[in-house]
Amino acid sequence: MWWRSVALILLLMLGLAWAAEPGQAGGHTLNILDGEASAFNREVRGLLVWVMGFAALVFVVVMGALTYVTIKFRRTGKETGEPPQTHGNDRLEVLWTIIPTVIVLTIFGLTARSMFRLEQPQPGAMVVEVRGWQFWWDFHYKEYGVRDSNQLILPVGRPVTFEVTGGDGSNYDVIHSFRIASLVGTRDAIPGVVTRITVTPEKEGNYYGQCVELCGASHANMRFRVKVVSQEEFDRWIAEAKTYQASAPTDPTLQRGEELFKQQCAACHGLKGVAQGLPNNPDLTLFGNRTTVGAGMWPNTPEYLEAWIKNSPGMKPGVKMPAFLHLSDQDVKAIAAYLLSHKIEGFDFDKLEKF
Ligand code: CUA
User: CA 35, CA 16: separation in Å to the nearest integer?
Assistant: First the structure.
């Protein structure tokens, strides 16, 4: 039935239009054509235009030829016996070998040019080690000795080189892939291998990061946020992050939170001044400055954080953190309040424009 095919195609198109609507993904526009934020994206966009141009050309020529022969040589009912049989056409065969070769070589040349441009070392680049874990991201500002998880603060206008790798070489590691929509991407995060990618963010804002290599149950839930701020703000941020030490709380709820944190969380999670934690778990030192919980998944509000602490496996399939169903609601609230109390004052990353 032809109308079923048409209905299916229309439905698919509607679905795609809905998925591409900017209201999705927490208001972030995931647009490959957005070249405003970095030279990297402009280069990739330029390449995409060429490839799409050739693809459109091939489509029009092939479909045009197909339509032409379908109409011209259609069955009329007046045939008597077989039509004339044609074997081989040297000129045509040479032509359809040369044209695709030229197209492929052109795309190859353009791609190589873009790759050389993008691989140029940038003097004065800040190095950030990026490590993909199941299912979250760890960021290490090597020159400052600062570690942060699932959120990356970057200065505008300064080149940054990401050294992308994955896991710690244990048997459970899988490959992830690092991409920041509207800014840079992608590099695979492969355990035991370091791949580099450099970009200079040009616009202050809140960027959306996502794992783009199928890596398990929560591949789609392996996100992160990037906050591009002014150089002055970044300098203040990194200076305070470098020396941050959690101080003993005076508020009774926070005191209870600290006590519980040490009992329940500190074996895995680091919090400077309180717990060393383990490198294969997210660092929680500046948790109060994060805008999301669960690796870029939900807004970092007490409600979501409490739900996460109580039963993260129920929220995100495949997460390594166990549920803490034995904790009372009051205890969970105390831990959440304690985590949210650790922050550098004067930053409201939620206010940044979203890309
Ligand atoms: Cu990690 Cu997909």
Answer: 22
258 lines ligand 1 (CB under 6 A): no
Residue 132 CA: which ligand 1 atom is closest? Answer: 1
| Mean pLDDT per 10-residue interval, the chain, length 355 residues | 85 80 58 79 91 95 95 88 88 94 96 92 92 94 93 95 86 87 89 92 92 93 94 95 91 92 93 90 94 92 94 92 93 94 91 85
Could you tell me if 229 and 237 are in contact, meaning their C-beta atoms sit under 8 angstroms apart?
A: yes
Q: Which domains does the chain have, with CATH numbers?
A: 1-6+39-71+90-120 (1.10.287.90), 126-243 (2.60.40.420), 252-351 (2.60.40.420)
